[in-house]
């Protein structure tokens, strides 16, 4: 991730327009993914950078290269092989990689992210070829700052994704292989929101692993001891966060796939220390609430008139519950009243005041004993029969948990149930859309955690966080938000729900099409920036425009603000190379 030429050309290489300074010639240019154009180098560039003889004589366009890459992609026999091909392409030519992804996003998305990236992460140590990212291990906390500093100067980095690998994509503890989710999330930040690919850092905190198969694997590349917890873990995390704040004070820190015992408390501890975000909690909550809001708009039903049952009370389920609770409070309910609209089920059944071993995040949602009286708290059907939920959300990773009996029981009490089986990958879904629509005679409003084809001519939206976190992150980066607030997340929810296809097409999805993802991210970024300005936490106005003495001004007009955002989004286009002397 450290680019050898950072010191020479940070002011041009890290921009999104204009020439890119290049201190290399010959094979060094071809071996630098951020500079390599492969067969698309012009004759002038081949002359200038000594590339004749290193390339075939015919000059291709970027579109020619994408066409060739797509044919190569299709020849790979398995999804995991396609994932490896994409990784290889990224290692060779960044612009071509992202252009290929944008042009073939529907086919490639599930390859570079869930579900295939999960399989790649499981095989990380066996398929390892080239390291990418920053590896921080708990045995050397004194080296955290030194290792992070390798990735650039304070002005070089906009976005950092960090994981400790404990709860990866529904497949659990993957140890140091978790670096793969940090890399994948940053790929989406660039693909979906135009964050510059050389202004990001993927990080894994290697604190050990509790997965015995990894500990026993002679090829496993991480620390071979049980996960370190308690004070030593917290001290390690504190050094990391403070190092990020010191080294990259303008960067957004994105927490990803931490275990349920750490995710919420780490977010709450640091959310006022620096601009940070937990996608499993806030991103999942935001995109889910956006889909719910769109569904309720089609039904002309206020959310305060609904009851919500969440099957799965871990980080994702609690994140959704908290987002809905915050939203209900904005509609005039007290916090206690808002919580009463939501019931949670974990692996031990309905969470009630008599439940044992509940977490701090679950406490506000415990059902009063008298309300739970006579309910079989282990039976989803019985819980539904008594609670009459309008909305059923699955974050349990228990495949088939939403049975025909449970769904039909829900449909007895609610004419058009909203049902979101969100667990991923696909094999862990609580139900498949075809069954849900058949069991409800087509009345259910459905979104899923993984991609599914249309059912009965109805688009099934993938309730993917990519519709949420890239735009939130982009907005926070561009306005240099001092922190990421609940108001900013709420603004993203309103912006996303307002562009739901189902609002204009009854067969449309609850969330936009992937092909529109950059427009979606820009729309959300605009809303987030406006809210940050309103809340007084946008600090970019304190910075001067590059090369001038004028301070940056955030446009107040929506249209002008959208253009301002668009102009700062990196695009996969070949830009002229400008030769400079190597220092």
Automatic annotation (TrEMBL):
Cofactor field: Mg(2+); Mn(2+)
Name of this chain's protein: Malic enzyme
SMART domains per UniProt: malic (SM01274), Malic_M (SM00919)
Organism: Magnusiomyces paraingens
Stored InterPro entries: Aminoacid_DH-like_N_sf (IPR046346), Malic_N_dom (IPR012301), Malic_N_dom_sf (IPR037062), Malic_NAD-bd (IPR012302), Malic_OxRdtase (IPR001891), NAD(P)-bd_dom_sf (IPR036291)
Lineage: Eukaryota, Fungi, Dikarya, Ascomycota, Saccharomycotina
Annotated (S)-malate binding sites: 424, 464
Active site: 113 (proton donor), 185 (proton acceptor)
Gene Ontology molecular function, alphabetical: malate dehydrogenase (decarboxylating) (NAD+) activity; metal ion binding; NAD binding
One Pfam match: malic
Keyword Magnesium: no
């Amino acid at each position: 991730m450290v680019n050898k030429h950072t010191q020479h050309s940070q002011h041009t290489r890290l921009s999104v327009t204009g020439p890119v300074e290049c201190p290399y010639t010959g094979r060094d240019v071809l071996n630098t993914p951020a500079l390599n154009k492969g067969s698309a180098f012009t004759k002038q560039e081949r002359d200038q950078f000594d590339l004749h003889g290193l390339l075939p004589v015919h000059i291709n366009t970027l579109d020619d290269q994408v066409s060739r890459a797509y044919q190569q992609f299709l020849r790979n026999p398995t999804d995991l092989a396609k994932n490896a091909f994409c990784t290889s392409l990224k290692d060779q030519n960044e612009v071509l990689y992202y252009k290929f992804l944008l042009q073939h996003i529907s086919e490639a998305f599930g390859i570079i992210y869930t579900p295939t990236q999960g399989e790649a992460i499981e095989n990380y140590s066996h398929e390892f070829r080239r390291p990418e990212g920053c590896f921080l291990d708990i045995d050397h906390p004194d080296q955290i700052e030194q290792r992070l500093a390798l990735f650039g100067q304070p002005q070089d980095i906009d976005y950092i994704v960090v994981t400790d690998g404990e709860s990866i994509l529904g497949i659990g503890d993957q140890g140091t292989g978790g670096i793969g989710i940090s890399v994948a999330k940053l790929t989406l930040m660039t693909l979906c929101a135009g964050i510059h690919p050389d202004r990001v850092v993927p990080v894994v905190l290697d604190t050990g692993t509790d997965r015995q198969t990894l500990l026993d694997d002679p090829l496993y590349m991480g620390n071979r001891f049980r996960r370190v917890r308690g004070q030593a873990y917290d001290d390690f995390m504190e050094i990391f966060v403070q190092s990020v704040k010191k080294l990259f004070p303008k960067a957004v820190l994105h927490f990803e796939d931490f275990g349920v015992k750490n995710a919420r408390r780490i977010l709450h501890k640091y959310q006022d220390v620096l601009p940070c975000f937990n996608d499993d909690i806030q991103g999942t909550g935001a995109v889910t609430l956006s889909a719910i809001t769109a569904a309720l708009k089609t039904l002309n039903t206020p959310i305060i008139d609904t009851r919500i049952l969440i099957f799965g009370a871990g980080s994702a389920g609690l994140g959704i519950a908290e987002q809905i609770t915050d939203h209900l409070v904005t509609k005039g309910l007290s916090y206690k009243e808002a919580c009463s609209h939501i019931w949670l089920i974990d692996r031990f059944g309905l969470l009630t005041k008599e439940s044992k071993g509940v977490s701090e995040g679950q406490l506000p949602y415990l059902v009063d004993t008298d309300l739970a009286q006579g309910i079989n708290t282990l039976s989803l059907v019985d819980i539904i029969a008594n609670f009459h939920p309008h909305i059923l959300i699955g974050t349990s990773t228990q495949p088939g948990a939403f049975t025909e009996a449970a769904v039909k029981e829900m449909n007895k009490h609610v004419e058009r149930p909203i049902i979101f089986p969100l667990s991923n990958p696909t094999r862990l879904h609580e139900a498949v859309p075809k069954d849900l629509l058949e069991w409800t005679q087509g009345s259910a409003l459905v979104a899923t955690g993984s991609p599914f084809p249309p059912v009965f001519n109805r688009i099934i939206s993938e309730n993917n966080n990519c519709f949420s976190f890239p735009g939130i992150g982009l907005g926070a980066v561009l306005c240099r938000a001092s922190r990421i607030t609940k108001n900013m997340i709420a603004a993203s929810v309103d912006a996303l729900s307002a562009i739901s296809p189902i609002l204009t097409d009854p067969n449309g999805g609850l969330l936009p099409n992937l092909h529109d993802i950059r427009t979606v991210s820009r729309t959300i970024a605009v809303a987030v920036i406006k809210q940050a300005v309103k809340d007084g936490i946008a600090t970019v106005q304190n910075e001067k425009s590059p090369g001038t003495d004028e301070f940056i001004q955030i446009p107040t007009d929506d249209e002008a603000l959208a253009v301002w955002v668009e102009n700062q989004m990196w695009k996969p286009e070949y830009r002229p190379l400008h030769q400079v002397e190597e220092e």
